């Protein structure tokens, strides 16, 4: 067991802005995310987005932040995700927690009803940092390699064309 687990739950102050909204809750023991519901009904046409309220505001302890994550079932069944995932709720924010939903399905509209579970809230400890400006950073095994430098996807390399895979690079060059 870790020291964090030994410390017990973190106390968070919650204000319900809508008395019908249930407080965020864990669906199962051991879950990381607490379910958030929406206070409004909305229809999301294909590709469209909407910001919906959750009917709650929080006072997180100093050194913590809450992160709004998509619900995997909503994404898998309906193509709905949280647009700026994870959305960050800072400890000093006292307004309503809102969720930006987007329908990624290219053909079907999605109807979200009031009190539907639309996102998950994960509360985590966050570190406060102090930057030290330097002329040069120390070396590392990775260096400046980024944005696909480790490979792992067939369409990223030239060998993909010889295997018959569709290549993103080849498609772009062919336009």
UniProtKB/TrEMBL annotation:
Instruction: Name a Pfam family for this protein.
Output: dUTPase
Q: Which cofactor does it need?
A: Mg(2+)
- Give the residues the record marks as binding substrate: 71-73, 84, 88-90
Q: Does the keyword Hydrolase apply?
A: yes
Source superkingdom: Bacteria
Report keywords, A-Z: Hydrolase, Magnesium, Metal-binding, Nucleotide metabolism
Reactions catalysed according to its record: dUTP + H2O = dUMP + diphosphate + H(+)
Q: Which CDD domains match?
A: trimeric_dUTPase
EC number of this enzyme: 3.6.1.23
- Listed pathway(s): Pyrimidine metabolism; dUMP biosynthesis; dUMP from dCTP (dUTP route): step 2/2
Q: Name one GO molecular function term.
A: dUTP diphosphatase activity
> Which SUPFAM superfamilies does the entry mention?
dUTPase-like
The dUTPase-like domain covers which part of the protein?
A: 23-151
* Enzyme class of the recorded protein, top EC level: hydrolase
Q: Where is the composition biased (Gly residues)?
A: 142-151
Residue ranges of region Disordered? 138-159
Q: Which family does it belong to?
A: Belongs to the dUTPase family.
* NCBIfam families xref list: dut, PRK00601.1
Protein function = This enzyme is involved in nucleotide metabolism: it produces dUMP, the immediate precursor of thymidine nucleotides and it decreases the intracellular concentration of dUTP so that uracil cannot be incorporated into DNA.
Task: Supply the name of the protein.
Answer: Deoxyuridine 5'-triphosphate nucleotidohydrolase
**UniProt source species:** Streptomyces polyrhachis
Query: What high-level taxonomic lineage is stated for the organism?
Result: Bacteria, Bacillati, Actinomycetota, Actinomycetes, Kitasatosporales
């Amino acid at each position: 067991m870790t020291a964090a687990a030994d410390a017990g739950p973190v106390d968070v102050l919650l204000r319900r802005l809508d008395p019908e909204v249930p407080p965020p809750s864990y669906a199962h023991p051991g879950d990381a995310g607490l379910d958030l519901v929406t206070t409004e009904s909305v229809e999301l046409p294909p590709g469209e987005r909407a910001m919906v309220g959750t009917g709650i505001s929080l006072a997180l302890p100093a050194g913590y932040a809450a992160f709004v994550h998509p619900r995997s079932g909503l994404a898998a069944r309906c193509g709905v995700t949280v647009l700026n995932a994870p959305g960050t709720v800072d400890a000093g924010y006292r307004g309503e927690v809102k969720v930006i939903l987007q329908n990624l399905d290219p053909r079907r509209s999605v109807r979200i009803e009031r009190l539907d579970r639309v996102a998950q809230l994960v509360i985590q400890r966050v570190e406060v940092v102090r930057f030290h400006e330097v002329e040069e950073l120390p070396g590392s095994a990775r260096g400046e390699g980024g944005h696909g430098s480790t490979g792992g996807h067939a369409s990223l390399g030239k060998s993909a064309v010889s295997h018959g895979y569709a290549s993103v690079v080849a498609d772009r060059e062919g336009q």
